[in-house]
Amino acid sequence: MIKDIKGLHHITSMASDARQNNRFFTETLGLRRVKQTVNFDDPSVYHLYYGDENGSAGSVMTYFPFQNMMLGRPGVGEVSETQFSVPKGSLKFWQDRFTAQGVDGLETDTAFGANRLRFMGPDGDGLALIESADDNRAPWLAEGIPDDAAIRGFAGARFSLNNTGATEELLGFMGYQRADSEGDVTRFIIPDGNGADTIDLTALPKIPFARPGAGSVHHIAFAVDNREKQLEVRKALMDTGYQVTPVIDRDYFWAIYFRTPGGVLFEVATNEPGFNRDEDTAHLGEALKLPSRYEDFRDQIQTNLAPLAA
Ligand code: ZN
After folding, report:
1. From ligand 1's centre to the CA of 266, what distance in Å?
2. Which pLDDT does position 309 carry in this prediction?
3. Smaller CB count within 10 Å for the chain: N or C?
């Protein structure tokens, strides 16, 4: 069994408009844009990272905004809800804020004993705020959002699956423990995680597979401390029969990817080197950063990308 997973590292989704996406995550949700770069496989598309001050593992929501991409159709085989942790008693603040800003899909309920506010991102992204009384992670403080309401990072994520059996087994192998179940949802928790500790599996046997598009999660990444641990995790997964990619340099972390039996694409990413490797913490996310192989094409790349601020 793997013992080095520390919870989530980041979640990466797709969007249809870079400027709208940037505005929603930095202004409406008040996250910090910690990196402005391009899709390393397609430099005509941004890769935008939003998180806490440092872009700590477990706080980072990232987007590929493919301009004018069609909306995804929700279904099984995907991450259906990305959950952010907020302080206890803050949902009223968020509900008022979202209502005033015209955010869609507002619904309040409780999930595993915690108050939850579900809402949609600009492309119908399945998002939720979960109240927590004991999340000690420091928030990024954006204008208009008080410290006692600001997002602390991810709480976790919820998957929609045809059949949860093989994914339950995989999560168990990755060090997650089955904690509880509520209706058709089973909760898994990583012990001693970074705060982004829960994965909920929803069994929906009669629902068709999702059609990925804008608003869909592309993949979900789990955190390991360093490259050495990552290689151990990679070997353990491959010994168990998973087809895992070689280690890929993503400039701010090292990544391996593998497709899981339920259809969700998993990544395991290192906490090193982090987002301040090519710019000061005080100025994270302000300038367009490019992997070195694209530096020669900076002018052309920059011309093709729509400015993020109006
Ligand atoms: Zn990733």
Report:
1. 8
2. 82
3. C
In a domain, 1, yes or no: no
Q: How far is the CA of 263 from the centre of ligand 1 (A)?
A: 16
How many angstroms separate the alpha carbon of residue 92 from the centre of ligand 1?
A: 32
Q: What is the pLDDT of residues 57-109, one digit of tens each?
A: 999 999 999 999 999 999 999 999 999 999 999 999 999 999 999 999 999 99
**pTM exceeds 0.90, yes or no:** yes
CATH of the domain at 137: 3.10.180.10
The structural domain count of the chain equals 1
Whether 3 is covered by a domain: the verdict is: no
In a domain? residue 209: yes
pLDDT at 306: 87
Q: What is the 3-state secondary structure (H, E, C) of the chain?
A: CCCCCCCEEEEEEEECCHHHHHHHHHHHCCCEEEEEEEECCEEEEEEEEEECCCCCCCCEEEEEECCCCCECECCECEEEEEEEEEECCCHHHHHHHHHHCCCCCCEEEEECCEEEEEEECCCCCEEEEEEECCCCCCCCCCCCCCCCCCCCEEEEEEEEECCCHHHHHHHHHCCCEEEEEECCEEEEECCCCCCCCEEEEEECCCCCECECCECCEEEEEEEECCHHHHHHHHHHHHHCCCCCCCCEECCCEEEEEEECCCCCEEEEEEEEECHHHCCCHHHCCCCECCCHHHHHHHHHHHHHCCCCCC
**What pLDDT sits at residue 310?**
59
Distance 10 CA to ligand 1 centre (A): 6
Give me the pLDDT at residue 164, please. Answer: 97
